[in-house]
Structures are given as C-alpha cells and as structure tokens.
Amino acid sequence: MKNLILFFLTCVIATGAFLSGLSMKNPLPAFIVGFGVWILFIYRMARK
C-alpha cells in the first residue's frame, strides 16, 4: 500500500514538473525535477 501511495505521489509531482516545463523559457530545471523524482522512485523500489 505504501508503494502505491509513493507511485501516485511520484506521478503527480513528475506530471506537474513536466507540464510546467512546457511553458517555461528554460525547461531544464523542471525536466530535471521530473526525471529526478522518477529516478529516486525506481532506486527506492530496486533497493527493496
């Protein structure tokens, strides 16, 4: 159950970051946050 909550939270944060990156003049920081959240999630799941 905890993994499912973390998955949904990761999806919300990454989606918000990617959508905000579409409207920014320099989208690199938003894309770094979006991909960084997914990397942290995958790292956490692989560590278990």
Short account of what is shown:
This protein has 48 residues and is mainly alpha-helical. It has helices at 2-23, 28-47. The protein has one domain (2-47).
Please supply descriptive tags for the structure shown above.
elongated; mainly alpha; 48 residues
- Based on secondary structure, the structural category is mainly alpha
Which H/E pattern describes the elements?
Answer: HH
Distance between the termini: 14 Å
Roughly how many Å is the radius of gyration? 12 Å
Molecular shape:
elongated
Task: Summarize the main sheet.
Answer: none
Q: What is the number of strand segments?
A: 0
What is the beta-strand fraction?
A: under 5%
- The domain tally reads 1
Mean pLDDT across the residues is 96
Q: What fraction, in percent, of the residue positions are helical?
A: over 70%
Provide the fold topology.
Layout: H1 2-23, H2 28-47
Helix pairs in contact: 1-2
Question: How would you characterize this protein structure?
Answer:
The structure is a single chain. The chain has 48 residues and is an all-alpha fold. It has one domain (2-47). The protein has two helices and no strands. The protein has helices spanning 2-23, 28-47. Helix 1 (2-23) runs antiparallel to helix 2 (28-47). It is elongated, with a radius of gyration of 12 Å. The two termini are 14 Å apart.
